[in-house]
Design a protein that fits this description.
With about 180 residues, the chain is α+β, with helices and mostly antiparallel strands. It is about 40% helix and about 15% strand. It contains four helices and seven strands. Strand 2 and strand 3 form a beta hairpin.
Length: about 180
């Protein structure tokens, strides 16, 4: 599960003091900022499922200046973390597995925030009572999201907060803009 620390804690202490003096709801401003950043990350993670046959829902746990983006989708989590090599056996004993060989193209790639049409295996059909699966390479989307997009998420949150602060200052009759990027 990607954990994003927006690095706003030090900034929060100073801004909270100022916002308390202005009489505004700092928690609501921080909540909107974190939600903006989380929406950005969720959108990036959703790109990995564009060509999937089912919908994957991403959830956000907001912890003030930090948030977690996660899904409970087993397939997404399995691909994110990868799988070890393992035996595959039929669910119903006595009935063989049946599958096509050759031509399979996965819909996702390691550390890539995109999904492709892929291709089903199209070779000859094999029937067997068990098969050794070599495992699935971890796509590492969670790790990559934090390292590649954590800074952008923090920037989005900060921009949202600055926008709210500037509105408050203007509404209070102040002409000085507190923050700008």
């Amino acid at each position: 599960m990607p954990k994003f620390d927006l690095g706003l804690n030090t900034l929060n202490d100073n801004i909270f003091t100022m916002m308390t003096q202005l009489g505004n709801d700092y928690d609501a401003i921080q909540q909107r900022a974190t939600e903006s950043a989380a929406k950005y990350i969720s959108t990036i993670l959703k790109r990995t499922t564009t060509h999937w046959n089912h919908t994957v829902e991403f959830n956000v746990d907001n912890h003030g200046a930090n948030f977690d983006v996660y899904t409970e989708d087993d397939v997404w989590n399995m691909l994110d973390q990868g799988t070890r090599a393992h035996w595959i056996r039929p669910k119903n004993p006595g009935y063989p597995l049946r599958f096509a060989t050759g031509g399979f193209v996965p819909k996702t790639k390691v550390a890539t925030f995109a999904s492709y049409p892929g291709a089903q295996a199209s070779g000859s059909t094999v029937r067997t009572m068990e098969v050794w699966h070599p495992g699935t390479a971890a796509r590492e989307w969670s790790t990559e999201a934090v390292s590649r997009f954590g800074g952008e998420a923090a920037s989005i949150a900060l921009t949202s907060m600055m926008s709210d602060f500037n509105k408050i200052m203007k509404a209070g009759g102040r002409t000085t803009i507190l923050f700008s990027i």
